[in-house]
Design a protein that fits this description.
The chain has 8 helices and 12 strands. The protein is an alpha/beta fold. Helix 6 crosses helix 7.
């Protein structure tokens, strides 16, 4: 979970982002201008700022430079309608980690935050991580060992091997079919739900597998494969 500040002067968009990121398990606060963040954000420990560039008063570029100067380790994601190459260059030079041209889907923003969180809150290496034993069908973690079914082990291994730990729905169905299960949509959802529960039981976070609407799912935990 991250502490996130959203600086966006569009009230409806800001409210939608706050709702979506709160649903991801983050602590989120919203501000309609840079000055409000400066006034009220001092008492908060903020890990990451999502900032619009076209703000009333101090603009997003100036705010980003100031944030980067005062807190070099903070995460900064820019969202803006400015899409020219020069605009992106200025955004990154001012200190942005990620530059997202508007319109930005909430799913894309959540994925960007997840990617950046690996730098902000790196997972501990070694025994504290999760381990999949595909031979013995076991999931190991800091809270203990949990047995897996063959489809669950196959699916978890596929997530671990996939780029960014993301699988499209058709890929998940293909994995389950190869594991001798003929899945329909309900069976797929049940498998994902049971696997999420077992990940939590072994010590994962509260939402170890995240749905990506109209696309597929993403494993949000680093795992190590053993055979």
């Amino acid at each position: 979970m991250l502490s996130i500040a959203v600086v966006e002067d569009n009230d409806d968009l800001r409210a939608a982002i706050l709702t979506a990121l709160s649903g991801e398990g983050h602590h989120v606060v919203g501000f309609d201008c840079a000055e409000a963040l400066a006034e009220h954000g001092r008492a908060l420990r903020i890990d990451l700022v999502v900032v619009d560039l076209n703000l009333p008063g101090e603009d997003g570029i100036s705010l980003t430079r100031r944030l980067r100067a005062t807190d070099p380790d903070i995460g900064i994601i820019m969202m803006t309608a400015r899409t020219r190459t020069d605009d992106k260059r200025i955004g990154y030079e001012s200190g942005a980690d990620i530059y997202l041209p508007k319109p930005v889907s909430l799913e894309e923003l959540a994925a960007a935050i997840l990617a950046l969180s690996r730098r902000l809150r790196p997972m501990p290496a070694g025994p504290a991580g999760l381990t999949i034993d595909t031979g013995r069908l076991r999931l190991g973690g800091p809270e203990g060992t949990t047995p897996l079914s063959a489809p669950e082990a196959a699916l978890l291994a596929a997530f671990a091997r996939a780029q960014d730990h993301r699988l499209e729905t058709w890929q998940i169905i293909e994995v389950l079919e190869q594991a001798d299960r003929a899945p329909n949509r309900n069976a797929l959802n049940v498998t994902i739900s049971r696997l999420s529960a077992k990940l939590r039981q072994s010590g994962a976070t509260s939402r170890p597998i995240r749905a990506i609407r109209n696309w597929g799912y993403q494993l949000c935990e680093p795992v190590i494969l053993t055979f």
